[in-house]
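@channel sequence for tomorrow's demo:
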Amino acid sequence: MSAPPDGLPVYRVLTGPDDAAFCHRVSEAMALGYELHGGPAVAFNGERVIVAQAVVWPAQS
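structure tokens (generated this afternoon):
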């Protein structure tokens, strides 16, 4: 597949609380064919840990 499915962008940043739901979202993106782009970013908003993970669609040669 040369483009992401369902009109999704080539580059995405997934964000949210550091919980199972966030991990499932990243796992679902990887199952679609996205690859991790760098490591996650982690911050604390005063109440909980918030994470961000960039994913990219692999370039087709």
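heads up for whoever presents: Strands lie at 11-17, 35-36, 41-44, 49-56.
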